[in-house]
Write a structure and sequence with these properties.
Shape: elongated
Number of helices: 33
Number of strands: 6
Structural class: mainly alpha
Largest sheet: 6 strands, mixed
Helix content: 55-70%
Distance between the termini: 103 Å
Length: 630
């Protein structure tokens, strides 16, 4: 009995699906730099195929090293064990490769975090360098089984590394260096390594996917689509988890089929519940579709999985803002600040939250803190320009907006510069500055022809009365993105409706906008901010239906957290006043509501530039309404 008890208490414990493991750096004892980082990445890919094992993410590893004051250090066995203990993980995996004559010996060990004893050990040999990946593959599968994963699971979720990645160690090394560089220096610095990987192996699907994500992060959408499409074509040459990532990215970012993207994210999440990426993608999809409760649910899931990543806090705060739950959003940003996350991006998010709460003093303080911060000058000027436009100070807004464009161009970021021009044209076109809006939209299209820019510029041109240019851009969008939810169900109907309103064809505009009703409360890229609702409100004003117009413009006050700094949120208040004024023709009680709504708008714009066309119209309309009351 004593012997049985001793054996049971000292035998290697198997892991459970709830346990997390830390992957230490692979120890390259061969002296051959080809194995540096390469086998570490290969082992990670093999282990991450498992729905049973949970490998601690690189972000959590880096965040924990930072807390240990060891940021940037190699992840040795000792450091891995300390991280393991700090994060409540179960085991540290340690791998090594050594040369033995003409052979290579691969050793994998799983070490208990609390006791430091080995709980699983595997050794495999490769006859030559070309056989190293195959040997590592065999060793990883044996280790998975010894750690408690069933043979059936391993058979199903263990595509050989040469098929799931690449048979080329050189390509895998370049890819691994790209991942490492992205973590330390960002996406732009990582791109050359990913490019080298696909040059060595043109069938390296995961590398194409990494390139697509990197190009999206630097706003190079043409190359993003090209690489994402290539990854999608090669998706069968990956593990299941990476295939989900490739398919979801392709549907979401290339074809724009949000429904298919959602299905892929949902299946990915059900298969790998410990992976934050499907939760993050699902959250964006739900936000795009206007389902803000589900967006919040997924943002909370991401926070649970990645609590040391600023985007987790930013997205959760944004989800609360979209639901007008500003105090909870503020609490989330405070938590990020306490963790020293976000830097200047946290200040920008706090600025927008202060705007939504009407805290002018906080906005002024944050604006002062943000001025001159290197690397974000363009975003800060764009944000301050949007604030000026919200209050009708369009001269200041235009100056700040052009400074944002100049900084973006100075950083060789033409895509961002183009989008700034396009969104400025769109946000201010209804105010009556048609020539400026047309000029900015045309300048945007000269810099970029991406979906983001073209859709925004096309609606701006329609609002500014350049019907010919708007129709041309809309036709190009229709041809290029026939499956896109954003294009087909939001942008094209809204552009068509805006064009119809130029001819005073209100009923035609309303018919066009029927397609947009399902997604109009969402944040479909490139930008949404209830644009279909605003144009529908204008259409109802055109046909003389004040009550229906009021319902549309009310959406801007009901969903102010979604609208944010977008100028149409302020202009919708004037639209509401005009709607009540129409109602007053048949309902005298509506006259007082109209008067109050006009006063609300004119108070908001008390410091507006006096020559803004819509401002002059609003004052004249209010004076007429007041005269009628007398």
């Amino acid at each position: 009995l004593g012997g049985t008890w001793y054996w049971r208490s000292h035998r290697a414990p198997k892991l459970t699906e709830r346990d997390t493991i830390v992957l230490a750096d692979f120890d390259n004892k061969t002296g051959d730099p080809l194995f540096d980082d390469t086998l570490q990445q290969a082992l990670s890919i093999q282990l991450e195929q498992s729905p049973f094992l949970n490998v601690l993410s690189d972000r959590k590893v880096r965040a924990t090293l930072k807390l240990m004051n060891r940021a940037g250090e190699p992840l040795s066995e000792d450091a891995g064990r300390e991280i393991c203990i700090r994060t409540g993980s179960k085991a540290t995996l340690v791998g090594s490769i050594a040369a033995s004559g003409h052979e290579y010996v691969i050793d994998l060990r799983a070490v208990s975090c609390d006791l430091g004893n080995s709980i699983a050990k595997v050794e495999e040999r490769a006859a030559d360098k070309q056989g190293v990946l195959t040997a590592l593959d065999k060793a990883a599968k044996q280790l998975r089984n010894k750690l408690g994963e069933s043979v059936g699971s391993i058979d199903r979720y263990a595509i050989p590394l040469q098929e799931a990645t690449t048979p080329s160690l050189d390509a895998l090394r370049a890819y691994s260096m790209g991942l490492k560089t992205r973590m330390t220096k960002g996406s732009r610095a990582a791109i050359p390594f990913y490019q080298r990987a696909v040059e060595i192996d043109p069938n390296f699907a995961i590398a194409y996917h990494a390139l697509a994500v990197a190009y999206r992060n630097v706003d190079d959408f043409d190359r993003m689509e090209e690489c994402a499409s290539k990854a999608y074509q090669l998706r069968d040459r990956t593990s299941e988890r990476e295939r989900f990532a490739i398919q979801a990215n392709y549907y979401h970012r290339v074809t724009g089929e949000i429904g298919k993207a959602a299905q892929t994210y949902e299946l990915w999440q059900s298969r790998y519940p410990g992976d934050y990426r499907p939760a993050s993608g699902l959250g964006i999809v739900y936000s795009d579709l206007g389902n803000m409760d589900k967006y919040l649910e997924q943002a909370r899931a991401v926070m649970r999985l990645e609590p040391n990543y600023y985007n987790s806090y930013e997205n959760l705060a944004n989800a609360y803002e979209n639901l007008n739950r500003l105090d909870e959003a503020e609490e989330v940003l405070k938590q990020a600040e306490q963790r020293h996350l976000g830097g200047p991006f946290l200040l920008m998010d706090r600025y927008e939250l202060a705007f939504l709460k009407g805290d002018r003093a906080e906005m002024t303080e944050l604006a002062a803190a943000l001025k001159g911060v290197p690397g974000i000058e363009d975003a800060v000027f764009a944000m301050l320009g949007d604030t000026e436009a919200w209050y009708g100070r369009f001269k200041n807004a235009r100056g700040l907006g052009h400074q944002a464009v100049e900084f973006a161009e100075r950083n060789n970021d033409k895509e961002t510069a183009a989008f700034y021009l396009a969104i400025q044209a769109l946000s201010r076109a209804p105010a009556g500055n048609r020539l400026e809006a047309r000029a900015d939209a045309a300048a945007a299209l000269k810099l970029s022809q991406s979906l983001n820019v073209k859709a925004t510029a096309a609606l701006a041109l329609a609002q500014a009365g350049d019907v010919t240019a708007a129709k041309a851009a809309a036709a190009e969008l229709d041809e290029a993105f026939p499956l896109s939810t954003a294009v087909q169900k939001s942008w094209l109907p809204t552009i068509e409706a805006a064009i119809a309103l130029q001819a005073k064809q209100g009923h035609r505009a309303l018919d066009a906008l029927e397609k947009a009703s399902a997604v109009e409360l969402g944040t479909v890229e490139p930008v949404a901010y209830l644009c279909p609702a605003y144009v529908r409100g204008e259409a109802y004003l055109t046909v003389g239906d004040g009550q229906a117009a009021a319902r549309e413009f009310h959406k801007f006050t009901e969903h102010y957290g979604t609208v944010g700094l977008f100028t149409w949120g302020a202009l919708a208040r004037l639209g509401l006043a005009r709607a009540y004024a129409l109602e007053a023709a048949t309902d005298p009680a509506a006259r007082e509501k109209a008067r109050a709504a006009y006063q609300n708008f004119l108070t908001l714009w008390k410091d507006a530039n006096p020559d803004v066309p819509i401002y002059k119209q609003a004052k004249a309309e209010y004076a007429k309404l007041a005269a009628q009351a007398l």
